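In response to reviewer comment 3 from the previous cycle, which asked for concrete evidence that the modeling workflow produces usable outputs, we include below a single protein chain processed end to end. The sequence was submitted unchanged, and the resulting structure tokens are shown without manual editing.
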Amino acid sequence: MYKYILVVDDDINLAYAIQSYISSSERKVFIVDNSAAAIKLLGLYNFQLVISDIMMPNHNGYELLSYLRLDSNLSSIPFIFLTAKGLTVDRVKGYNLGCNVYLTKPFHPSELLSIVNNLLYLFKDPSQILIKNERKDVIIQNVDLTSREYSILNLLVKGHTNREMAYLCHMSVRNVEKYVSRLLSKTGTRNRTELAQLVLANSLKANDGTRTRE
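The workflow returned the following structure tokens.
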């Protein structure tokens, strides 16, 4: 399964060079040249890392980082500033906003690769979370669910966040949110907690033999 990395830099030649440095058979590296395009992609794919310049037209890297850290679905994504702004005040601002690493240009490719490897290791993928008592299905009586809804419901009951479910199901966070809303509507529940409790109650009934196996 790919690890998704987003590179944001208006110097396209450098962006392609970064892509070549950090690419591997297990990584898919996307390149955009502005923050607006980055935000759009962040809503479509589940990225494990963002590498961004600071000085860019319209919205700079600081603004991009602030956007991520204020979004509950994106706030945990590791973030690297790769920039020519090397003053202490710039570094302090970057770290205060929540960047994980502040690397100045020029940089050595091996140093960047080492940083990338370390961040991807430290911030492990949701797919590596061990799930005990794995079940192939969940039970809700008198509710007709699609196979995708069953998949989302299984993960929701196990306590996965929308971002984790998006990664595991290879879909966007927005689509996961739509499926969760659909599940709430179909089951007449008001939130994730009530939905999980409903599934648990139905499962207990089935285990007690009160549910007829069709």
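Strands lie at 3-8, 27-32, 49-52, 79-83, 101-104. We consider this sufficient to address the reviewer's concern, and the full set will be provided in the supplementary archive.
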